[in-house]
Amino acid sequence: MTSLGIKVVSVPDAALKTYLEERCPILDFILWKDEEDPSADDLSVIDAVITPYAHSSLTVERLASLPNLKLVQTQSTGMDNLVGKVPPGVVLCSARGVHAASTAELAVGLVIASLRGIDVAARNMTRRVWQEERRLTLTDRKVALLGYGSIGQELHRKLAAFDVEIVRIGQTARRDEHGDIHGMDDLMGLLPQTDILISSLPMTPRTVRLINRPVLSAMKDGALFINVGRGGVVDQDALAAELYSGRISAAVDVTDPEPLPEDHPLWSAPHFLLTPHLGGNTSAFLPRIRTFLADQMKRIAGDQPVMNQS
User: Fold this and answer.
1) What is the distance between the alpha carbons of residues 240 and 15, in angstroms, rounded to a whole number?
2) How far apart are the first and last CA of the chain?
3) Which residue among 48, 99, 219, 307 is least enclosed by CB atoms within 10 Å?
4) Which position among 96, 141, 230, 288 bears the catalytic label?
5) Are strands 174-176 and 179-181 parallel, antiparallel or unpaired?
6) Burial (CB count within 10 angstroms: exposed 0-12, middle 13-18, buried 19+), residue 42
7) Is the confidence at residue 110, as pLDDT, over 90?
8) Are residues 24 and 108 in the same domain?
9) What is the residue-wise DSSP string for 53-104?
10) Closest CA to 136 of 159, 116, 119
11) Known catalytic residue: 277?
12) E strands along 101-243, which residues?
């Protein structure tokens, strides 16, 4: 028994169940596959749920049916899919930090691919076209990091290896050992001098459609926009309009909705690169999420404060 009263935890796959049982034998773990309905007996005793690594989950839809639910632990950084699904009073924890390195890595890859025309070269290759041209570079560019959580901080570390000027924008203005972090209110004033804007913002009431037509219009000619946070942060119709104007370019790993509808104008937009929400879905995910979840379960069993509580 813990201060949260948690004794029984459901997990979405058998391998994870075995892993956690070996490392935290004090708790009882029940297998709850997303595509299956637990028995009535299991539903009545589950105190905590580890949700599947999926933005859309049947498990999430059933949370309200658990009479003793006290904690929900996700395997993702963002938790917008849980809005309205977690009963009042239930502790909600994210896996913030687990996906940071992989998502930041993809963001840097999207920047380089877009600037150097790697996507263009890949398309030319299918047509056996050899097209030499002078392309843009990351070197000597001004990069604004919109969002300075775990992903933004990892981006800062990775981009430090390049010859770039980094501007950081967080929810609120503050200072740290690296200097100033601008608040959101400074965004519009920074955009005209920014070459590359990288958003890793989560989906919150404050960030819905934050990247709208006025924001995109304020970006300098030739600027590049990257989104590895959440698709709902961007007004996609406004983004499509800017891309078709030829004024800016963009590369995104997230859209709203997902998958992007087949008839959406972004599919054929010029100067645009799209990846299907690959950010944290890498070979690093499994060992990192297992380590994180084992640590979290030990905290629960040991009556310690849980990590990443929202």
Assistant:
1) 42
2) 22
3) 307
4) 230
5) antiparallel
6) middle
7) yes
8) no
9) S-SS-HHHHTGGG-TT--EEE-SSS--GGGTTTSPTT-EEE--TTTSHHHHH
10) 116
11) yes
12) 142-146, 165-169, 174-176, 179-181, 196-199, 224-227
Q: At what angle do helices 100-116 and 150-159 cross, to 10 degrees?
A: 50
In this structure, the answer to whether residues 54 and 170 fall within a common structural domain is: no
Q: Which pTM value belongs to this model?
A: 0.94
Q: What is the mean pLDDT of residues 170-192?
A: 98
Q: Each residue of 22-37: pLDDT tens digit? A: 999 999 999 999 988 8
140 Rama sector, left if φ>0, alpha if ψ -120 to 50, beta otherwise: left
Q: Is 307 helix (H, G, I), strand (E, B) or coil?
A: coil
Span 40-47, average pLDDT: 94
Residue 169, helix vs strand vs coil: strand
CB contact at 8 A, 81 and 58: no
Together in a domain, 104 and 90: no
Q: Which amino acid is at 250?
A: A
- For residue 291, which amino acid is it? T
Supply the range of the domain harboring residue 252: 100-274
Total domains, the chain: 2
Tokens coding 170: 């967080």
**Has residue 299 got a pLDDT over 60?**
yes
Give 64-105 pLDDT, tens digit per residue.
999 999 999 999 998 888 888 999 999 999 999 999 999 999
Cα separation, 40 vs 252, whole angstroms: 43
Residue found under tokens 């989104």: 227
Residue 156 and residue 145: Cα distance in Å, rounded?
8
- CATH at 45: 3.40.50.720
Tokens encoding 1 = 């028994």
pLDDT class of 1 with cuts at 50, 70, 90: very low
Helix (H/G/I), strand (E/B), else coil: 259: coil
Considering 99, 271, 277, 288, which one is annotated as catalytic? 277
